[in-house]
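Human: Respectfully, please carefully check these tokens:
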Amino acid sequence: MASIVELAEEIKADTIKNEDLIVCLEAKNLRVVAMATFKLIERNYCDIGIVERLAELGKLLTDSKFIGPWQFGHIAIATLSLLSDKDAKIKFNELFEGLSESDKFLVDNFIKSESYKA
């Protein structure tokens, strides 16, 4: 099995297999997790393991600064909304309902900003 560093290189080169993206979501390095998240959005790839991991990452709403005003949890929750998968949409609605108004604003803002397309 490839190391996280090798998988990160595969993401950059766009040669990573969809199934390996879930491995990247488990990385300790949030940069690699972010790269994998954006690749999931780009490829519109999702399975139940990805939904579950994004839901876990969605709890990182404080002390996990990502970019600009967003915490990593905002990005994970927004990703669930951006994937064309029934389970992802259900989980997004579940998590979004439980957010504070400011967190809802930040999730909506991330989706509308299309920052994941960079």
